[in-house]
Amino acid sequence: MTLVLTAVGSTVMALLELTVGPYLRIGTAEPHLVLVFGIVVAVAIGLEAGLVWAFVGGIVLDVIAQRPVGSTSFALLVCVAATDLVAHPLARVRPLVPVIATLLLSGAYSMIHFVALNALVAPIRVADPVAIVVPGIVYDTVLAAIIEPLFISVHDRRRAGVERLDW
Q: 32: domain CATH number?
């Protein structure tokens, strides 16, 4: 049941990224909601749920935005899988893992997606791709720092069970 809810959540987040995301733009930075929530889901729930989130969310983004199908999913899957590699050494500081992973992987996601689109569609001429990506990295990291404590605490509280009085 968790994976079905994960797929539904990623679909909703992909729709929000494409409809509301452009209105949340600050300067040149636009949030990558599917990526940020995918990293948080991978840390809070587990790698399998994170991969489902990345695959379904990427396919929905590709279909609705009319990109080559699979290009966004590929970039998201690589970054969510890398989140698991970042999470294991930092297991003792679990609340900070999504923020650190987003800081490291947001730029990787943008570059992988940029390269995939250049390979599959007409090349996009950009003078300095790193200067375009840096504001998005900052935006995604701040977004992860805001949503991560809430998401993880709600998930952990739900798993803890109901408190009862013991006599």
A: 1.10.1760
pLDDT tens track for 11-43: 999 999 999 999 999 988 999 999 999 999 999
**Domain count along the chain:** 1
Of 153, 42, 56, 123, give the one whose Cα is nearest residue 88. 42
Q: How far apart are CA 4 and CA 84, in angstroms?
A: 21
Domain range for residue 109?
2-157
What is the torsion angle, in degrees rounded to the nearest 10, for the CA atoms of residue 93, residue 98, residue 103 and residue 109? 140
Q: Say if 59 falls within a structural domain.
A: yes
Burial of 127 (0-12, 13-18, 19+ CB in 10 A): exposed
The tokens describing 39, both together, are: 């990293």
pLDDT tens sequence across 45-100: 889 999 999 999 999 999 999 999 999 999 999 999 999 998 888 878 878 888 99
165 within some domain: no
H-state helical runs in 45-128: 47-65, 71-87, 97-120
